[in-house]
Design goal:
about 50% helix, about 250 residues, 2 domains, six-stranded antiparallel beta sheet, alpha+beta
């Protein structure tokens, strides 16, 4: 009696199933990379490497599984592995595409000539092996080209009232480190949900001829570039602040 006749998988079928399982395992690495960094099992760079490696291997496995299916080989696990593997690869590709037109900068400010300074968020808060806290002036022209919409916001209210509005507009998920009304400065930390990356935010409220001026700076602790995350954070904050201002005026 042959192996196939005995109901046992033939060598090609067994090999197909093994590669399908390996593809699923690689896709699992993509899912685990973020939590492994968030819970401090891996540093940010090894976790990012694990994510990229898992996505590439899953993509290669998915292509192999697809070829087997076109040859009418493989079973349900091969179909699942092909779908999951391509999905894992798509996550990596989407990140690359999304960040392809973004400059390699990690510090965005509405005032690049005199960016708001971090005071309460110092080395004791930020930890070791992170980007320097100081602002790099070389980022200014790159920001101007990539994010011309990032500008200060003028509010037609006194600085004290503007500070209260600025504080109320802070994201509910931010960790407020300080809210110094006398200095007109708010400092906070935002932690991303999946990866657990921490980015620092400082908001400055100053007097202006028409009332008060709001400046915001957002800085990534790790990484050369930020895929546009800091600019999006500032834009979202200023939008929330503008909405609160309109509500306060009604």
């Amino acid at each position: 009696m042959t192996t196939a006749a005995a109901g046992k998988p033939t060598p090609p079928a067994k090999s197909s199933a093994n590669i399908a399982r390996a593809t699923l395992g690689a896709a699992l690495l993509v899912l685990l990379a973020g939590p492994l960094h968030r819970f401090e099992v891996l540093g940010w760079l090894p976790a990012l490497g694990l994510f990229a490696m898992g996505a590439v291997l899953a993509g290669i496995g998915a292509i192999w599984c697809l070829v087997q299916l076109l040859r009418r080989r493989g079973g349900t696990i091969t179909v699942v592995a092909a779908a999951v593997g391509f999905a894992a690869l798509a996550v990596l590709v989407s990140l690359i595409v999304a960040g392809g037109d973004k400059p390699p900068i990690n510090d965005i400010s509405t005032d690049t000539g005199n960016p708001p300074a971090f005071v309460a968020i110092d080395a004791s808060v930020r930890g070791e092996d992170v980007n320097p806290i100081g602002y790099n002036p070389a980022f200014a022209p790159q920001q101007a080209r990539a994010y011309p919409e990032i500008r200060p916001l003028d509010l037609p209210v006194p600085p004290d009232q503007a500070f209260e509005l600025a504080l109320a507009a802070c994201n509910k998920d931010w960790q407020i480190i300080t809210a110094n009304r006398t200095a007109g400065r708010i400092e906070a930390v935002e932690r991303s949900g999946w990866w657990g990356y921490r980015d620092d935010v400082v908001i400055r409220v100053t007097a202006a001829p028409a009332g008060a001026r709001i400046d915001v700076r957002s800085k990534s602790r790790v990484g050369e570039g930020d895929f546009g995350a800091n600019a999006r954070r500032i834009a979202a904050y200023l939008d929330r602040l503008a909405v609160l201002m309109r509500k306060a005026g009604t």
